[in-house]
Amino acid sequence: MLNEKYIVVGVQSDDPFTSDIAHYMHQEVDVSDILAYKEFANTEFCPRFLSDESDFDHIGHGLDGKTVIIVSACSGILTRNARAMRTFLVARAAKDNGAERVILIEPDLFYSAQDRGPRPEYGRVAFQRSVSDYKKFDGQPWSAMLYAQLLKTAGVDAIMTVHNHSVAVQELFYNTFNGYFYNLSPAQLYASYLANHAPLNQPEDEQGIIICAPDKGATPFAQCVMKAYEEEISKSLLSRHKKPEFLVMSKERLGEREVVMKPAPDSPITFEALKGREVVVCDDMVRTGGTIMTCCKQLKAAGARRVLFVVTHFYSSQEVKDNLGSDVIDEIVTTDTLPNILNRDMQGRLRKKILVLKLERWIVNELHRQILGGEFKPYNPPYSVDISHKNPNWINNQALRDMEL
Predict the structure, then answer these.
(1) Number of domains present in the structure of the chain
(2) Domain span including residue 82
């Protein structure tokens, strides 16, 4: 282990996401043989980088010159709070034993929801804050700032995450880590899937697909997906795909869980353009699924032939499964930033229409390209797929069956 320049560890010994990252980094030693995950009788966690018990010459220097890569993806029984505390201690253990650099890979960045606090100086957002917005955070901590400061204090030097939508969080972490904050956008991955594997935009279609932003907040990302899709279909002069169009929805909340949705006033197209078309709804996360279900229901009512929901962070609650199980959504494409979604029990009946793009190859590609440098042959394709054999897309798509690991 000590002969390796880059050392991949997790915050628990049996984390498949961490093991996959280590595998694609060509790490031969198992994660559990690098780090001991010890809990004292009083439940306090104390990690220990394992070393030769007979080596008394390198005490406290077993990681000199090494880059330690900590992977923390929410899976298993550990809570976010437990994972965060373990990350602090693993990072400190690495630095206290000589590590030159500590990199944290956290695909779904913790505490991002608390991206601002009750005062004007607590978080710079991309909109004019109202008194009611300040009041919403009254009495709460500015958790994103605290989390960034604790990671820095623990010894983390750089952070890589996936599709964090908060401008305030991005600026905060970028400044705290002196620019060594990398927020990866999966737009190109979705575009690759849509152009090459999704059963969209058949040759007989006179018009292309419609990319839909379910609200103003999702618009920048949906635009990125659309641009990447256009680039993807332009690679072949013989492409059967037509140029896509863009729809922006707006929502009005009538209650805690009730919303109405319609095309935004500045949307490039309106509902009249939807008849007989295939629509791809793009968002960063789903927590309840109510808003997305309402959006897709109205798209179908307006005449959309088929609706596909593309979402990066999938919180597989019972409420989400109930809402997205509606037949107004024909297919769901997500990622394993929250690896529990790979569990068929967590998917429930959604397994018949859900496909997961596994991001470990892509993350390793970006880790080398943006942070580690040096010679490295990128993995191509940059993702693998996880799809239930009960999903018709697996049955009807040989390319997907070939990609599945």
Answers:
(1) 2
(2) 6-184
